[in-house]
Write a structure and sequence with these properties.
By secondary structure, this protein is an alpha+beta fold. It is built from five helices and five strands, in the order ααβαββββαα. The longest helix has 17 residues, at about 10-25.
């Protein structure tokens, strides 16, 4: 059964993400002079909210390998790579976690890592492929902004947190299918 974005059930993932991001933004890793003091602050400032969509069955999903899997499908299909947060109520005690997925050419979520029905909402930054590849190469990691199990030494992308996200980093038109174009802003984690 599908629900409209205004229904209470459809609003719950957005509210969970908002509450969690409000708390996570308080965990600061940088200095007051940085453009963004945390990954959550970066995503809040530039992210968009997306509803889940069924996996397109174009290949096996790879739980635990979201950054590599999303990068693969971005390269394979030309989809936008998105890095941010997902909410999965069954993933207790951390129902909101750092995650990567793709947006199809139609703007639908394509999550090559998690099975359908696990995630109830996504909030992240759709990235330009050239920017993504450049940052992955510089960091020697598949994650662009956050920590990556493939290279734990890479840590957070402090350069982007310090300097801010360049305009050319964002994927064009990727937000067209986000829920009502909801975006975070500097002053609040309200997507």
């Amino acid at each position: 059964m599908s629900t409209s974005p205004d229904s209470e059930d459809a609003q719950q993932p957005l509210e969970e993400l908002t509450q969690w991001l409000d708390r996570y933004r308080q965990l600061r890793v940088g200095y007051d002079t940085w453009a963004h003091r945390s990954f959550a602050d970066l995503v809040t400032a530039h992210g968009l909210f997306f509803d889940p969509a069924p996996w397109l069955k174009r290949g096996p999903q790879r739980p635990g390998q979201c950054f590599a899997a999303a990068s693969h499908w971005s390269d394979e299909k030309g989809w936008a790579y998105v890095e941010g947060f997902a909410v999965a109520p069954s993933a207790v005690p951390f129902a909101v976690f750092e995650h990567a997925w793709c947006l199809t050419d139609e703007g639908d979520v394509a999550d090559p890592a998690l099975p359908d029905g696990v995630v109830t909402g996504y909030f992240g930054i759709p990235l330009n492929s050239d920017f993504r590849r450049e940052q992955q190469r510089l960091r020697a990691a598949k994650a662009v902004f956050t920590s990556d199990p493939s290279n734990p030494l890479a840590g957070l992308n402090e350069q982007i947190l310090r300097q801010g996200l360049p305009r050319h980093a964002l994927a064009r038109d990727a937000g067209a299918r986000s829920r009502e174009g909801r975006r975070g802003n500097e002053g609040s984690a309200r997507p």
